[in-house]
Structures are given as structure tokens and as C-alpha cells.
Design brief:
The complex is a heterodimer.
Chain A: E1 2-10, H1 19-33, E2 49-52, E3 60-70, H2 76-86, E4 91-98, E5 110-118, H3 122-134, E6 139-144, E7 147-152, E8 157-168, E9 174-186, H4 194-205, E10 214-221, H5 235-240
Parallel strand pairs in A: 3-10
Antiparallel strand pairs in A: 1-3, 1-4, 2-3, 5-9, 5-10, 6-7, 8-9
Chain B: H1 7-11, E1 40-46, H2 50-53, H3 57-68, E2 72-78, H4 82-91, E3 109-113, H5 120-130, E4 145-149, E5 165-166, H6 172-187, H7 193-203, E6 213-217, E7 223-228, E8 237-238, E9 266-269, E10 271-272, H8 282-286, E11 291-292, H9 295-309, E12 313-317, H10 327-337, E13 344-346, H11 357-363, E14 372-377, H12 381-386, H13 393-405, E15 410-417, H14 424-445, E16 451-458, H15 475-490, E17 499-503, H16 507-516, H17 523-531, H18 545-554, H19 559-563, E18 578-579, H20 584-596, H21 613-617
The chains are: A alpha+beta, B alpha/beta.
């Protein structure tokens, strides 16, 4: 059975889709696109589509991954186009390759996040980031399904920088200046999310943004040991199979 | 004048609410048009949560039909949950449409589709959030026409004060006609303002404008008469009936939501109307006559709908789907076509006597074998005669025996409690029936691994039915009978564990009864409940019986008078000026026959018994068979 690995984006107002919403949308899009998806055997057959490391509801992403099992070999470039056309605007297919050996989930070691904080104070943000990076550990608490859980938010953070831009919501309404945090975070258990890092910034320096942050995952993948940079997790597949070229990311979607 | 999207203001609130995806729109096949490209603009509301409202066929059909009209646009709006409502109030965000997030008040019409009366408080929330005055008489030039439709609109009197207009029956043609009246009036420069527009709608006889009718009462509280208060307004307003469903093959572009909804399937209405004559069933009375969609149109609609939506389930909708004259060919044709594609078919409404196992096997051939549901409604033969649902015990046992022996393990049985003339033993009869079902299943399969679930709803007498005069059972009686039934089922050592029991207490049915057969005076109760925080009355976690009762008491409304009181033949009923086509004398006669045990046959297969609908409305029964078959199509 051929397996196809898909990189897709979750943009604009569709960032409010949950993981379950996306899996229903993808199943329907696969059917609409006529992709010969394989089904599990048994009493209640399910399409063979699996997801790796989905971004939380409300978080946008340029780098989500899924894998589709198909019954007859498909051209990845064709699947990329057909699947993208069948998905609603805002769930956009960016890249499709034929899977090579090795699991995809194992390659997703690190995420690169952009966190926009409209109305936040840049100087306070810089002070907070400095204190956070200087700390050995920053214990934060998060409410999980099993109740409150305490863990360290510092160790997972490989990089954290501050810059400035303009506020940009899904509605594309141009707002005022906005502090932008870039964070490169290692995937650990329990997962450290951007909001855990923000909790950490509040704990170390009382830094609290005035409105909810706009979070986007820009990339996820393996960490290149020599350069320390984030690599494309599908490169390995491209090297071992006849996979397609990575395409340019599509237009952002207006709300 | 263009209208701005409020999305950027809403967006800031979404991270703080449950299931934000329900408010963002962007569904596959949804339509967003330029504001200025239209001169008539409709906001269509289903007054419940998005997850319930999105799959609603009525709204979906009108949305598509109106958007197909030139220079016309339609968008959808749903009830927002209390968490978002509180944030919207705090931030001054108005009720919005999910398509282009435009404020509802900017539209020409707010059309609200009421499947049930329990959406009334949600309409008030939407009006208030939109900035539209609740009393229709307080509305000005800039407010939309608030128009009710759906089955509950056959008695809109309890919400008459909040409505500008109501429409009875099928909405396809009348919504187009209303659009053209509005277009003309606007093109002429809105002569005579809002009142003239309403007059133009009322004069046609096809739109009910409550404020053009005065209600007079007797000193004892009964209605004396309902009369137009202007010349040129007709005494009665008639329902609309679409003939030839093949000419209206909607939905063509089914909405596919991102959020999870209550029905995740592509639905095709295979016929409209039902003449089985069940006396409790308002839908069966007000949607006459039966109009079938032909097998070939059904086949084409399913093919198109699956391709457009990507759904993996097809629902063949109607009030009693196995009654379609060519249902066997439809089922076989579709099952052949979708062989091996994991596309399942479902038949939401089936009668025990119309069901056969070949049909069930066709329906489960390509997908999951879901449970089977039958609705004998009454627990005893006598009770079923009263309600004219002539399903015999032998029919039921034979049907479930076949189902169990063909591999089904679970059968669901639906009954009502509180029916007219009901005695304790009629309800206890449900337990006997359920036990016989299990016994028959065990004998047929030689296995103890079979189950049956008994599900009970409270009976509410509805307008335009033979039971419109009946006294509703009080909730104490219903609760006592249900408790006795539960004890009888649970206490049974031999069968009890194989029988599931689902029921609700009788209180919500009393509120539904008040709203169903209420008159204009009940409006004060609805408003008081809403002001006291009443929302989402169809949801048990939000519904409060005490809130309704205390609001009624404060408004001086005697709930028993509206619910448990039996009406006399000559009492003027609040909906008598609204014409569903049914002959009042026939309804009364049928009510008398119910009590005395008389039966009515289905006029599809026996001579006309003069219910009045076809001659009054100029309609006729449209049924097959056409003799045609479905062609195998290449499927994706």
C-alpha cells in the first residue's frame, strides 16, 4: 500500500477548527477528490488517514502533517492539487510526497512558533524573555483533563526572540503595532505549548499581554544536528521516493 | 451603502468560547455575495445552536433558492450559546450572519424557521442582540421584517407580538414572491413605509401579518373572534403547497460544515406530506397531500449531493420513508450504485407495517448496520386505534423477529405517554410488548445477546390535528405512569436486563403544550421567561420548568387552562383564521371517532374521505410508481 504524506496549513478563521473537525473535513475532501483511500477492515471500516502532532484549536499553522494510505499508487503532485481544491479555503495543502521508510511522527522533534501580541509593550517583553532564558527552569501549571499539572516550560525552549510588526487578524484588519515572539520549542512530554511559555513569561517578569495572543506554527520537523536549524521532515521521503517538489505556500485567507 | 463585516470584533471573543468553529462560517458550498450586488437581502435563522440548525433542510433549501435569484442574497444566522452572548453584550457585538458576518439588523428580512416552539426564547435573544425592538409595533424603517416559517408557524399567535409576518407551508415559492414584493416596494422608494410593505404582503393572502388582525375575548377568557382590522386584509391566510417536487431538486449544493453537527449526511426528501392519518401528528396533517419525488430525480440528487459534499451517508427523508411507491427500487438502485464505496444509506422514518427485511438489507449493504427504530406510539391495541396508528402486535413481532434473525441485535421502539383516553394499563402495555419482542428475538436467534430500547416521549396536542381539542395529560399523571412502566421493566428478572428505557419527565411537555396551543396572551410569558434568562428551552440543561411557571403566574396566565383543558367544538381556537386546508368539521369528526375507536384509511390507496385539503388548496396526490429504474453510475 502506497502512503502519501501531506503538509497542510490551517489559516485565518479556520484556525478555530479542532482536530476532530479537521479529520472530518479531510475524510470528505478525500472522497470528493476521488483519492482511492484505503479502508481498515472490520465491522466499521475507517479510512486510513493518520495525523501527526496537530496544533491546538485556535492556533493557526503553516506546518501540519497527515498521512493517507491509498489502494492504487497516486501521483503526489496530482493529489496535492485535487485535495487542496476539495478542502475548504483555509485548510490548504502545501506539499505531498510518497512516504519513504521511517515514521513521520518521529521526525517532528521541534516546532517553530510565531506568537503575535497586539497591544503588548515591547520593552517589557524583552525583559521577560531575557529573564526567562536566564532561568534554569520555569515551573508552570496547566489544567489538563486529569486536573492541574506542573511542569518545566524552560528546558524545551531552544530559542526565543522578540521583534515588532503590525497586528494581523484573520479578518486582515490592519491594527496597531504588535509584539512578535518567535519560539523554537522541542516536543517533549508533557508538551510545552506557546501558551505555557507565555505563562512562564508572566511568572518570571509579570509580563501579561492585554488581549489573547495570535499563535501560528510556522514549521515543525527534525533538528539539523550540524546547523541547529529546523529541517523539512518530508526531505527524507523526497530523497528515497519519487516524491514531488515542495511548493510555495499559498495565499493567506481573508476572514 | 455597504455593510461592514463584524468578524474582526467577533474574532477577539472566539478564543474565550466553547466550539468557536460554529461561528466562523466558511462551510463548503456556502455563498457570500457582495452586499451591493443585491437589492433584497435575507438573513435566515434557525433558532437553535449551529450544530442543530446547520443540517436543517428548510433553511438550506431557502438559502440556495434565494441565492440563485438575481440581485438577491441570503445568509444564515443561528442562536449563539450563552458564553458568547455574554461576551457579545459586553463588547457590543451584534447578532451576525455566519456567511459574511454582517449584522442581522442590516438585512431586509429576518426569516426564522421554527420546527418547534422551544426556539421562541432564542429568537428573542437574536432580536435583542441584533438591536431590533422586540415588539413588532416598535420597529422602524431600518429594521428587518421579522418573518416566521416552519411547522410551529401554523400557530404563531404566542409570538405574534414579536413577528411582523408569518408564512404557512412550503417556503420555496412564497419566499421568492415575498422577495419580489420587497424589491418592487424598495424600487418605488419605499412608499408608505413599513406598513405599506406589510399591507402588500398581507393583501396577497399568502402572508399572515398579525398586527392587521384583532383578537376579541369572551369574559371567561375564550376567544370571541379574530378579525382583520383593515380593509383588503383577508379573513383567512392559507398555507403554501409546492406541487411537483421534481421541479425543486434542492439542496443542489449541500452545506458541509467544519463543526460537528447532529446529522452528518446528505439528505434527500423523497416525498413531502403523509396521509397515514395518525391523529397526534401535526406534520402529517399540515403537509398534505403526499407528493413524491420520482425515483430518477432522487437518484440524480443523491449522485450530485455525494459528489458535491463528500458525505459518506445518504438519508432518504420523509415522514414515513418506506411508504414511497418505489422505495424498493430506490434502495436497490442506490445500494448497487454505491457497492464497495463505504457509502451508507439511512431511512430515518419507517413504519412497522411498511418495513420489510429486503429493504433493510439493501440499506445496510454498503455501510454500517445501524439499529432499527420503529414507532408503534401506543402501548395497547386500543391506544393505537385511538391515535389511528394501526400497527398490530403481530406486525411488530413479525418484523422484529425477522430483523433479529437477519443479524440485527438492537431494536429501538418509540412510544408516547399522555395520549387522549390513556389509562395506566395502556402504558404498562408497553412493557408487555417489549418483553414479547425480546422473547421473540431470543427464540428466533437462539441467543440471549439481543436488546431492545424503549424510548418514550410526552404527548402534546397540536393545532390543526384532530387532537387540537383534547385535554393534555398533566405532568403528575405522565410521571406516575412512566414510573410504573419503569418499575415493571426493571423489576422483570427474565427480560428486564435486555430492555433499555429512555424517557423524560412530563414537565417540558406542559410548556410545549402552552406554546403550541397558546394565543397572543402567552407572548407575555415568553418575554418574561426570556428576560429572566430563559434560553435554549429544547436543551434539558438550560430548560427550567419553574421559570416558565413563575413567569406565567406573574403574567396572570393559567397554564392548565391552556394545556389540560378540553375544548368544546364551537370554541374559537387561536389558529382558526390560519388555513392548513383541513376541514374543521372533518377534524372534529375524526376527534370523535378517535374516542369511539373509529379508524381512517390512507387516501393514497383508498377513496378520499374529505379531509378538505386538496379541494381547498387546489392540490392533488402525486405518487408513482413511474416504473423507471436507477441506472448504475460511475462513482468516485
Amino acid at each position: 500500500m502506497q502512503r502519501l504524506r501531506v503538509r497542510y496549513a490551517k489559516r485565518g478563521r479556520l484556525r478555530f477548527t479542532s482536530h476532530r473537525d479537521i479529520s472530518r473535513a479531510v475524510e470528505r475532501a478525500v472522497r470528493r477528490a476521488g483519492i482511492p483511500v484505503a479502508y481498515s477492515a472490520g465491522f466499521s471500516p475507517h479510512p486510513k488517514i493518520s495525523y501527526a502532532g496537530a496544533a491546538p484549536t485556535g492556533v493557526a499553522s503553516e506546518a501540519e502533517y497527515l498521512e493517507i494510505g491509498v489502494t492504487t499508487p497516486c501521483d503526489p503532485a496530482r493529489v496535492r492539487q485535487d485535495l487542496d481544491e476539495s478542502l475548504p479555503l483555509g485548510l490548504d495543502v502545501l506539499d505531498v510526497v510518497e512516504a519513504g521508510p521511517g515514521g513521520l511522527a518521529d521526525r517532528l522533534e521541534v516546532s517553530d512558533w510565531e506568537v503575535r501580541l497586539p497591544g503588548a509593550d515591547r520593552e517589557l517583553a524583552e525583559v521577560a524573555v531575557e529573564k526567562f532564558l536566564a532561568a534554569g527552569t520555569v515551573e508552570v501549571e496547566r489544567l489538563t483533563k486529569k486536573g492541574p499539572r506542573r511542569f518545566d516550560a524552560r528546558q524545551a525552549v531552544l530559542g526565543l526572540t522578540v521583534s515588532e510588526g503590525t497586528d494581523r487578524t484573520a479578518a486582515q484588519v490592519q491594527g496597531g503595532p504588535c509584539v512578535i515572539l518567535r519560539m523554537v520549542v522541542r516536543h517533549l512530554t508533557p508538551a510545552v505549548r506557546p501558551d505555557d511559555v507565555l505563562t512562564g513569561l508572566r511568572l518570571v517578569a509579570d509580563f501579561a499581554p492585554p488581549v489573547p495572543p495570535e499563535v501560528t506554527r510556522l514549521a515543525q520537523g527534525p533538528l539539523d544536528a550540524s546547523t541547529g536549524a529546523l529541517a523539512d521532515p518530508l526531505d527524507l521521503d523526497r530523497e528515497t521516493t519519487r516524491g514531488g517538489e515542495a511548493g510555495p505556500a499559498g495565499e493567506h485567507v481573508a476572514g | 451603502m455597504s455593510v461592514e463585516s463584524i468578524f474582526h470584533r467577533l474574532e477577539a471573543l472566539l478564543p474565550k468560547v466553547q466550539k468557536p468553529i460554529q461561528y466562523v462560517g466558511g462551510e463548503l458550498n456556502s455563498t457570500v455575495k457582495e452586499w451591493d450586488s443585491a437589492d433584497v437581502r435575507w438573513a435566515l435563522m434557525y433558532p437553535d445552536a449551529y450544530e442543530v440548525g446547520l443540517p436543517n433542510q428548510g433553511v438550506a433549501i431557502l438559502y440556495e433558492i434565494l441565492n440563485e435569484l438575481p440581485r438577491t442574497l441570503a445568509e444564515r444566522t443561528y442562536a449563539v450559546w450563552p458564553d458568547l452572548e455574554a461576551l457579545m453584550r459586553a463588547e457590543g457585538v451584534p447578532q451576525f450572519t455566519v456567511d459574511a458576518h454582517r449584522p442581522v439588523r442590516a438585512f431586509d428580512v429576518l426569516g426564522v424557521s421554527f420546527s418547534t416552539e422551544l426556539g421562541y426564547t432564542n429568537m428573542l435573544t437574536a432580536l435583542d442582540l441584533a438591536g431590533i425592538p422586540l415588539p413588532a409595533v416598535d420597529r422602524g424603517e431600518d429594521d428587518p421584517i421579522v418573518l416566521a416559517g416552519g411547522h410551529a408557524a401554523f400557530n404563531p399567535e404566542p409570538i405574534a407580538d414579536f413577528l411582523d409576518a408569518a408564512v404557512l407551508g412550503d417556503g420555496e415559492q412564497i419566499s421568492i414572491a415575498i422577495t419580489e414584493v420587497i424589491r418592487e416596494w424598495k424600487a418605488e422608494g419605499r412608499p408608505g413605509g413599513r406598513d405599506e410593505l406589510l399591507m402588500r404582503l398581507a393583501e396577497s393572502g399568502g402572508v399572515y401579518v398579525p398586527k392587521f388582525y384583532d383578537v376579541e375575548y369572551h369574559p371567561d377568557g375564550r376567544i370571541k373572534r379574530v378579525a382583520p382590522n383593515r380593509a383588503d386584509v383577508p379573513w383567512r391566510v392559507h398555507k403554501h403547497t409546492v406541487m411537483d417536487l421534481d421541479e425543486w431538486p434542492y439542496p443542489k449544493k449541500p452545506l458541509v460544515p467544519l463543526a460537528e453537527t447532529v446529522h452528518e449526511r446528505f439528505s434527500v426528501e423523497i416525498f413531502r406530506g403523509c396521509t397515514r392519518g395518525c391523529r397526534f401528528c401535526q406534520a402529517g396533517m399540515i403537509t398534505r397531500p403526499v407528493r413524491e419525488r420520482s425515483i430518477t430525480t432522487i437518484g440524480a440528487m443523491v449522485d450530485n449531493g455525494i459528489k458535491e459534499s463528500g458525505f459518506n451517508e445518504v438519508g432518504l427523508l420523509s415522514l414515513s420513508s418506506a411508504d414511497h411507491s418505489e422505495i424498493a427500487d430506490v434502495a436497490k438502485g442506490l445500494a448497487d450504485r454505491y457497492e464497495g464505496t463505504n457509502t451508507s444509506l439511512s431511512l430515518p422514518s419507517t413504519r412497522v407495517d411498511a418495513f420489510n427485511i429486503d429493504l433493510a438489507n439493501e440499506f445496510s449493504r454498503n455501510g454500517r448496520r445501524s439499529g432499527l427504530t420503529f414507532a408503534p406510539e401506543g402501548g395497547s391495541e386500543r391506544m393505537r386505534k385511538v391515535i389511528n396508528k394501526m400497527v398490530t402486535e403481530e406486525d411488530l413481532i413479525r418484523t422484529v423477529t425477522t430483523a433479529y434473525s437477519q443479524g440485527w441485535r438492537q431494536v429501538k421502539l418509540y412510544f408516547m405517554c399522555g395520549l387522549p383516553t390513556e389509562q395506566d394499563e395502556d402504558v404498562l402495555g408497553i412493557a408487555d410488548l417489549a418483553k414479547k419482542v425480546i422473547q421473540a428475538g431470543r427464540e428466533a436467534t437462539g441467543s440471549r445477546d439481543i436488546r431492545c430500547t424503549v424510548s418514550i416521549g410526552g404527548f402534546v396536542p397540536k393545532p390543526h390535528t384532530p387532537f387540537q381539542w383534547a385535554g393534555q395529560a398533566d405532568h403528575e399523571t405522565v410521571d406516575r405512569r412512566l414510573k410504573a412502566l419503569r418499575d415493571s421493566l426493571r423489576g422483570d428478572k427474565q427480560y428486564g436486563r435486555a430492555i433499555g428505557f429512555r424517557y423524560h419527565d412530563g414537565k417540558p411537555s406542559i410548556v410545549e403544550g402552552l406554546l403550541s396551543r397558546g394565543d397572543r396572551r402567552v407572548g407575555a410569558v415568553i418575554r418574561a421567561v426570556w428576560e429572566d434568562g430563559g434560553r435554549f428551552d429544547g436543551w434539558s440543561e438550560h430548560f427550567s420548568y419553574e421559570r416558565w411557571m413563575s413567569a406565567a403566574e406573574k403574567a396572570g396566565i393559567d397554564v392548565d387552562w391552556y394545556t389540560t383543558r378540553e375544548r368544546e367544538e364551537n370554541e374559537v381556537l387561536p389558529w382558526d383564521h390560519l388555513d392548513a386546508g383541513l376541514d374543521r368539521e372533518w377534524l372534529w369528526q375524526d376527534w370523535q371517532e378517535a374516542v369511539s375507536g373509529g379508524e381512517v384509511e390512507d387516501c393514497r390507496w383508498t377513496p378520499c374521505y374529505d379531509c378538505g385539503v386538496c379541494p381547498t388548496m387546489g392540490t392533488e396526490i402525486q405518487i408513482g410508481p413511474t416504473g423507471r429504474k436507477l441506472l448504475p453510475l460511475t462513482v468516485v
